[in-house]
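Quick question about two entries, pasted in order.
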Amino acid sequence: MTGDAAAQTEPRLRPPAESLDPRVKRLWALHGLIATGVVAVLGIVAIVVWSLAGDPPAAALAAGLAGLVALGVAASLVGARIAYRFLRFEVTPLGLYVQRGWITRSWTIVPHTRIQAVETTSGPLERALGLATVEVRTASAAAARIPGLDEGRIARLREDLAAMAGEGEAT
């Protein structure tokens, strides 16, 4: 088989049609900013303790910590936007199709007949933003996780998955 013929027979996946609720960018940015805040507090405590114990280069340490915090803030804000662009999902006749990843991409298709449970979870920040995470489980493990959905979209996703599961026969 030539290279052209092989390229024509290889299956090609298109990106899933649906994106997450845009508020998930705020959620992910908040997670990153909280982690950055924890690092900043620990760094300040370390500088203070070191200052009390001896004569550290406090100005250099403070400048380094400020740079680290600035990097953490930038990564939180930019990373949330990038992650949002690269996490998509769709309910298709074959199953639940989820694409994720910016540097390392993964495509997951969970056949409807393999779905055993659809779980919804939400932490305090998710609840404050009106969002939740849906996890689809199969007999072997958690097969797909979709964060950042609002309650209306979760209800429609459950209905879609239940309707599609009713069309096939479980094995």
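Here is the second entry:
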Amino acid sequence: MSLFAAPNLQTQVLLLASLLCLVAAVWDLRTGQIPNWLTLGSLLLGPIAQVALSHLAYPGVSLLLFLATSLLGIVFSALVPFLLWKKNALGGGDLKLLVAVGALLGPMLGLQVQLYSFLIALIIAPAQLAYRGKLLGTLKNAGSLLLNPLRQKSRRIELPPAALSEFRFGPAIFLAAVASVVTTR
């Protein structure tokens, strides 16, 4: 079955997003980074793919509506990841990948993939930290960071960057895209 013989538009764009996320996940696992050519290229091509596939599925609907859907996907998919990136809780490649997925999928499916990716990371990260023997130390550091806003400025605990744990989020985004294909059929 070819991609364009998929039963509906949602499945088609989710399969494209899954392919994008697969490449990003493999790259992230191997290098710890998601390349700009992949994320920014997808961010530029996402609206084009969204408009083209939507126009094929719904030829009577205005192309501007499909473009607006893609642009809303970019905006809504950027909000939470951007805040996490500003707090150094998410990598720049992960942010750009989630935004590119939003450009391709639109706001509803883009946010669905984002929610699923955070839920998957919530399961994978503790298991990964336990395997590395870093779970308890990371939980202690996380507790300190969570309590800092409640403390007086003079009593806040500053953690060095080395005390923070690294998590490669690309695979979680890929698994979320695949889960979205399965759950939206």
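Reply: The radius of gyration is 18 Å. Residues 7 and 185 are 9 Å apart (CA to CA). Hope that helps.
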